[in-house]
Amino acid sequence: MRTRRGGVKKLAFYILLLIFFSLSTNPTQAQEKFRSFNLGVGYTLPKFLDNSFSALRYQGHAGTVAGGFHFRKDSSTLEHIDLRFDYGQLSAFAFEFADVNYFRIEGNYSYNKRVKDIWQNRLQWFIGGSINSLYTLWDFSGFSNNSVNTSFYLSLSPNSSLVYPFKLWNRQFRAEYSAYLPLLTFAVRPSYGTTRLSGFLDDERDEPIVQFFESGAITSLNKFFRFSNTWSLEYFLSNRNRLRLSYEWNYLRYSEPRLVKAASHNIVIGTMFNF
Amino acid sequence: MMKLVNRYVIAIVGVVAFVSCEEAFIRDEYDDNAVDVFNSMWTTVDENYSFFTYKNIDWDAVYEVNRPRVSNGMRRDSLFNVLADMLFLLRDGHVNLQAGFDLSRNWEWYLGFPQNFDYTVIERNYLADDYEITGPFKHRAIDSIGYIYYESFEDDFSESVADYLVSLYASRVTGEDDTLIFKGLIIDVRDNGGGSLGNVNTLTSRFADERRHVQNWLYKDGPGHDEFTEPVKKYVEPEGDFQYNGPVVVLTNRSCYSATNFFVQIMKNFPNVTVIGDNTGGGGGLPINRELPNGWTYRFSSTVTTTVAGENIEGGVAPDRRVNITEEDRAAGRDTILEEALSYINQIFSGP
Fold it and tell me: Is A91 on the interface with B (CB under 8 A)?
């Protein structure tokens, strides 16, 4: 039943996509240059399963604040700096009660070069790289000594974007799809038992930065897999500032020291101010 | 051209199809039926409990005995009893299974021994009506010796309360005329079942003459029963306005557990401290909590604490002077252990 409903949803989505491309017209080919400051708020549906804590899957709701800078110095480059903060509450028994406080901070820098125009030059294809950092803190409020579960990941990733500027009903829009897949990651996860309050730091030692790096490991796809993709739609206002609606799906799997899997759906609406 | 378009459309469709398929990747490993609940608990304890080797427990044999007792569709209370029986074998006061209708436990660490404490005797015959209540502490001077009763390390107190207590009963506190006021201090933690290690640190830091290595903690570091981190050294440093360096006696019984067990063991590191009474009950591992697929929660020890010399304190801390309350004293309303402590401090004060 679930599969069938999912199939109908996807079919509807493809039909809408087809209608959208049919209705939209070729944009003016004047290539934009911009520097914009972004600020938005949104909603996240997070899920995770962490064998360090439980064999159960947790999921819940979170609020999001997102911001950053997007640069396009000329028609051939895209440069993004994005920050996002989520806070919410999760439960192993979906939505019945909240027993995990959920914090997530993500920061990404990406630089992309335009490599090709496709689809009758309407779709601009960019390829580049990105640095992705992610910090998560799951606080199991009802637990005593193992309440805090914290992780940090710093990744180098190939990055790709598709940009589709278009006009619809005489209004200018820009759709963008971007994705990254970390190939090399510095990952810090708590010890197996995770009774240390800060996850990995020994409070008897004075050098937290040294300990931080001692606790981490450089890893790659065999142990750490993360995939993020973001769809966004920008609507140009008369002053060239934009309204932006974005959706991101993010999945993470790390097998050390015990398997953790996490995913989130995130939708953000915000404004992009040129400066 | 159509081929190219098709290729990219397929690529986009592929990406979209990838979205929201985490349902396939992130699934509960166990269902909420009785067999899965049993397996979930057995496996989690197997991989995370810290005293299998120390207590010589054959957890595989526990599985073999108890697994046949579980079947899907069995009554909830029956399942609870099977799980409780299994956890009982860990002989650990830090192990509990909590369902809405019951809490499993093993409290043999004190039930099988003399209580060696009667608060009514302390209240009526020693504290009487002339004592102070400062935060969670009840205290007074008995024969020029400070006596402090601390019922539970669950009860928080401030740094200033700790400073006040130790300076009040300082054995060499002097007034303007340099008059000696108190001979020593007795800290009674009998029947104190534990609580916060933060309170332990605050209190012990008032007796630390210098930064001292007092314990080692080992964290579970893998699924094997003996997979632990290297010992992490724990220290106590002098804190607060005043460090008490006069004679100190800590009174113990078998109901001293968990944080109180830690407190007694740490205090034994200081040269001016003597422990009098019975063994503490134990509790040397920090308990962690887990949830079962059916919503019940449970906890169990996941670390090991040792003395500086490497002795495991899960089984309790032995006193320097073992004293039990005698039947005669009990009948007479006297506390043998407290009397021994008063006598001991008076003896130190009088000199050899």
Answer: no
B30 touches chain A (CB under 8 A): yes
Contact state of A194 with B290 under an 8 Å Cβ cutoff? no
Q: Which of A10, A57, A202 sits opposite B28 (nearest CB)?
A: A57
Residue B300 near residue B256 (C-beta atoms within 8 A): no
H-only helix segments in B140-213: 159-168, 197-204
Based on the structure, what is the number of domains in chain A? Answer: 1
Q: What is the rounded distance in angstroms from the CA atom of residue A106 to the CA atom of residue A127?
A: 21
Contact B142, B126 (CB under 8 A): yes
Q: In angstroms, what is the C-alpha Rg of chain A?
A: 21
Most A CBs within 10 A among B3, B20, B52, hence the mutation to make, goes to B20
Tell me which chain B residues have a C-beta less than 8 angstroms from the C-beta of A202.
232
- Pairwise CA distance, residues B209 & B294, whole Å: 51
Query: B119: distance to nearest CA of chain A, Å?
Result: 29
Residues in chain A closer than 8 A to B286 (CB atoms): 145, 195
pTM of the model: 0.83
Facing residue for A93 by CB, picked from B232, B295, B303: B295
Nearest alpha-carbon partner for A246 in A39, A91, A100: A39
Q: Within a 13 Å sphere around the CA of B304, how many CA atoms are in the beta-carbon half?
A: 24
Q: Where are the domains of chain B?
A: 31-110, 112-350
Its ipTM equals: 0.77
In B167-284, the DSSP E strands lie at: 184-188, 212-219, 232-236, 248-252, 273-277
> Does domain B31-110 fall into CATH 3.30.750.44?
yes
Residue B5 falls in which region: left (phi positive, over 0), alpha (psi -120 to 50) or beta: alpha
User: Rounded to an integer, what distance in angstroms lies between the CA atom of residue A71 and that of residue A38?
Assistant: 11
Q: Is residue A105 part of a domain?
A: yes
The reply to whether A15 falls in a domain is: no
Q: Identify the three-state secondary structure at position A220.
A: strand
In one-letter notation, the amino acid at residue B110 is: Y
**Domain assignment of residue A63, given as a range:** 30-274
Q: HSE of B56 in the Cβ direction (CA atoms, 13 Å)?
A: 0
* pLDDT tens for each residue of chain A, 275 residues long: 333 445 556 566 666 655 555 555 555 544 468 889 999 999 999 999 988 878 888 989 999 999 999 998 888 899 999 999 999 999 886 445 568 999 999 999 999 999 988 877 788 999 999 999 999 998 888 887 778 888 899 999 999 999 999 888 888 999 999 999 999 999 988 766 555 544 456 666 677 777 777 778 899 999 999 999 999 999 999 888 999 999 999 999 999 888 899 999 999 999 999 98
CA distance to A116, A159, A172, B210, per residue, from A162 (Å)? 10, 11, 17, 64
| Residues of chain B contacting residue A54, judged by C-beta atoms under 8 Å apart | 290-291
Q: Sheet of B96-99: strands edge to edge?
A: B102-103, B96-99, B297-301, B287-291
Q: Tokens in use for B1? A: 């051209």
For residues A137 and A135, what is the distance between their CA atoms, to the nearest angstrom? 7
Name the fold adopted by B112-350. Answer: 2-enoyl-CoA Hydratase; Chain A, domain 1 (3.90.226)
- To test the contact with chain B by mutation, choose from A16, A56, A177, A211 the residue with the greatest count of B C-beta atoms within 10 A, namely A56
> Which one-letter DSSP state was computed for residue B69?
G
User: Which of B208, B303, B30, B230 lies closest to A197, judged by CA?
Assistant: B303
Q: Do A56 and B28 touch (CB under 8 A)?
A: yes
